Amino acid sequence: MARIAVIPGDGIGVEVMAEAVRVLRRTRELAGLDLELRTWDLGAERTLREGVTITEAEFETLEGDYEAILLGALGDPRIADDRHARDILLGLRFRLDLFVNFRPCRLLDPSLSPLRNPDRWSGGMEIFRENTEGIYVNLGGRFKAGTRDEVAIHEDLSTWKGVERIVRAAFSHARDRRRPRVTLVDKANAMPASGALWRRVFQEVGADFPEVEREAVFVDAMAMDLVRRPQRYGVLVTSNLFGDILSDLAAVLTGGIGLAPSANLHPGRHALFEPVHGSAPDIAGSGTANPMAAILCVGLLLDHLGHVREARRVEEAVSLAIAEGVTTPDLEGTSSTEEVGGWIADHLANVA
Ligand SMILES: NC(=O)c1ccc[n+]([C@@H]2O[C@H](COP(=O)([O-])OP(=O)(O)OC[C@H]3O[C@@H](n4cnc5c(N)ncnc54)[C@H](O)[C@@H]3O)[C@@H](O)[C@H]2O)c1
């Protein structure tokens, strides 16, 4: 039996996760899967009520007792510094050492893309973003802060170990999914120190995967190419910062943030699935949040657990909803969050 921890979180996280869980329950029923779901009360409400973000014991249980975590979103205007979100989300990311941020980008319907020839991008792509190092480790500081002499230093950290494991994860994925090529995205011309490390590791690890081609592209050129000829790319591997930016760009090319799922992985050990979007306080409570990104996270979760057919079925049902116009206002539809989730759950049995 696989145990899944569900953390709805805050704002629309709660609303979209209700629909994701509905789709997961329906899949479990249709396919007779042995899955146990438990909902966790972690988020702004709990922090405001009890003054606690997440305890050591909770980290330990989440680390030891669950095959995977499904998370909605964290962030609430009543907690100005979003400290609970940092404690919970970054806490889990570092405690579980989730070094792969896996972001699949699929165009589920040509009508969703701002590209001139969206049909040419039928294959989609996967971005492997390094998730535990880079510029987000917060090394550095400010000197003479608040004066005209202020100096700010923000270090960009790459380790051989950190780079090796994300690059290896990308090549393994390309080999297993028969992607012909892995593309390293960097800025080795302007950032030669980290660039040299990444490129050396890329060549060394790549040599273990002779069936997969390798190439390196500068991040500025990649930003242009993702719009100009995205069909050229299959698996991208890149640093924390560049991955953050490029995956939002890729999300918009495939229909927007309401459709972008992600996985935070330590392959073979831990997995946390979450939509790319946040808690969207501007639309929370209006019933208009798109639940598709959260539902597509259920697809990634099922795939991760080895239920490949069921995963495809979830993705197919989402595509069908888009084709039938059963969408929320961000995709120019008039359906509510609940109506979209209900429709997808009801149509799971009708797709291959
Ligand atoms: N992983 C996470 O939990 C995560 C990620 C990003 C932001 N956040 C937090 O969320 C809060 C809001 O952040 P933000 O406004 O920068 O980003 P956001 O993703 O919450 O919202 C950005 C814009 O996209 C819209 N949007 C987002 N998801 C949508 C959906 N499913 N359907 C329709 N529209 C959607 C919102 O209405 C908003 O206009 C902040 O507290 C932030 O720290 C959390």
Description of the molecule:
The protein has 352 residues and is of the alpha/beta class. It has two domains: 1-101 and 257-352, Isopropylmalate Dehydrogenase (3-Layer(aba) Sandwich), CATH 3.40.718.10; 114-138 and 155-253, Isopropylmalate Dehydrogenase, CATH 3.40.718.10. Helices cover 41% and strands 19% of the residues. The protein has eleven helices and twelve strands. It has helices at residues 12-31, 44-50, 56-65, 83-95, 160-176, 192-206, 219-228, 240-253, 292-304, 308-323, 337-347; strands spanning 2-9, 35-39, 68-73, 100-105, 125-130, 140-143, 151-154, 181-186, 213-218, 235-238, 261-266, 270-275. The strands form two sheets. Strands 2-1-3-12-11-4-5-10-8-9 form a ten-stranded mixed sheet, sandwiched between helices. The protein has a two-stranded antiparallel sheet with strand order 6-7. α1 packs parallel to α11. It starts with a strand and ends in a 5-residue tail after the last helix. The mean pLDDT is 95. The protein binds nicotinamide-adenine-dinucleotide (NAD). Nicotinamide-adenine-dinucleotide (NAD) binds at residues 12, 16, 73-75, 82, 85, 89, 257-258, 274, 277-283, 289-290, 293, 330. Nicotinamide-adenine-dinucleotide is lined by residues 12, 16, 73-75, 82, 85, 89, 257-258, 274, 277-283, 289-290, 293, 330.
SSE arrangement:
Layout lengths: L1 E8 L2 H20 L3 E5 L4 H7 L5 H10 L2 E6 L9 H13 L4 E6 L19 E6 L9 E4 L7 E4 L5 H17 L4 E6 L5 H15 L6 E6 H10 L6 E4 L1 H14 L7 E6 L3 E6 L16 H13 L3 H16 L13 H11 L5
Parallel strand pairs: 1-2, 1-3, 3-12, 5-10, 8-9, 8-10
Antiparallel strand pairs: 4-5, 4-11, 6-7, 11-12
Helix pairs in contact: 1-9, 1-11, 5-6, 7-8, 9-10, 10-11
The site of nicotinamide-adenine-dinucleotide has 22 residues, from helix 1 and helix 4.
